Amino acid sequence: MNWNNWVRQIHRWLSIAFTATVIANFVTMGLGEPPTLVVYSPLLPLFLLLFTGLYMFVLPYAAKWRSG
């Protein structure tokens, strides 16, 4: 498995983790005042999704630039 496939797989798993943390956030908000840890828990997967998404966004442009 090459680097690009690893990044795509990590991006997929991060999206699942992000969705789960957002759902947990809404559930705890429905039960009352959520703890700070739960409120900020979606931020880590979100930032990692940002970096992997930007990497995958730039891939076609980098390939075009390398090919000349």
Automatic annotation (TrEMBL):
The UniProt keyword set, sorted, is: Membrane, Transmembrane, Transmembrane helix
Spans traversing the lipid bilayer: 12-31, 43-63
The lineage's top-level taxon is Bacteria
- Its protein name is Transmembrane protein
Which organism does this record belong to?
Bradyrhizobium retamae
Taxonomy, top ranks, is:
Bacteria, Pseudomonadati, Pseudomonadota, Alphaproteobacteria, Hyphomicrobiales
